Amino acid sequence: MPVVATDISVAFGERRVLNGMSATFEEGTITALRAPSGFGKSTLLAIIAGHQKPDAGTVTITSADGGDDTPGISWIDQASPVFPHRTATDNVAMGALSRGATREESLTIAAHNLTRLGLDDVRDRAGKRLSGGERQRVAVARSMAAETPVILADEPTASLDAASRGLVIDALRAAADAGAIVIIATHDDTVAESADRIIRMDTLDTPSAPEATA
Ligand SMILES: Nc1ncnc2c1ncn2[C@@H]1O[C@H](COP(=O)(O)OP(=O)(O)OP(=O)(O)O)[C@@H](O)[C@H]1O
Ligand SMILES: [Mg+2]
Predict the structure, then answer these.
(1) Please, how many CA atoms are within 13 Å of residue 153, restricted to the half-sphere of its CB?
(2) Total structural domains in the chain?
(3) Is residue 133 assigned to a domain?
(4) What is the pLDDT along the chain (214 residues), one digit of tens a residue?
(5) Which residue, of 60, 77, 102, 165, has the greatest Cβ tally within 10 A?
(6) Cα 48 to ligand 1 centroid, rounded to whole Å
(7) CB-ligand 1 contact for 14 (6 Å cutoff)
(8) CATH at residue 64
(9) Rounded Cα–Cα distance for residues 93 and 72 (Å)
(10) What residues make up the domain containing 195?
């Protein structure tokens, strides 16, 4: 089932950030959110994640079986937090543990996802000793290990070179191919071009405007 955001408005004091925005995000697709810095991309992701309440509007996310349980959402944060005293492996394994994998399974899943993100060399390194770009890829790998139906990625390639960026794009594409709803806030043209759809938030000028460009 899609993620449906309807008539979302948010203001911080006098400052209106989202002005009646609506959008639908389909399973098996990657959507890139584009807009200038400060426009409200992270705010929209936080609202979809349920971390923040909009001043008006609704977000509906229905689980695939039609039940009331909200499906799992993973969040790849703009700041790429990792547990500083845990190894890269343990950080990624937590994603698998969160969906009920055993410790042993989670280590296998972590190894696979570290490899696909080019992190074999740092798998035993503590989170606090990872570079910014390594942390960013650990955050992506953890999200992949969690296999959630919804993946929200806030500038997941901001600290990465072209090669690492390609690995992140490939991982997000694989998740979408497996059925996930992937929503990426990005300033990166290469990431946006790899998406199935781009929403240019700054051109959604009317409340509840139909969605933007394909
Ligand atoms: N809790 C808050 N209180 C006040 N203002 C806030 C709060 N959170 C966000 N804002 C403001 O809302 C605006 C939108 O912020 P947001 O982080 O969503 O932008 P963004 O599009 O993700 O920008 P960037 O590309 O720089 O990440 C900004 O002007 C920001 O300063
Ligand atoms: Mg942001």
Answers:
(1) 36
(2) 1
(3) no
(4) 899 999 999 999 999 999 999 999 999 999 999 999 999 999 999 999 999 999 999 999 876 665 556 679 999 988 888 999 999 999 999 999 999 999 999 999 999 999 999 999 999 999 999 999 999 999 999 999 999 999 999 999 998 999 999 999 999 999 999 999 999 999 999 999 999 999 999 887 544 444 444 4
(5) 165
(6) 15
(7) no
(8) 3.40.50.300
(9) 16
(10) 1-71+183-214
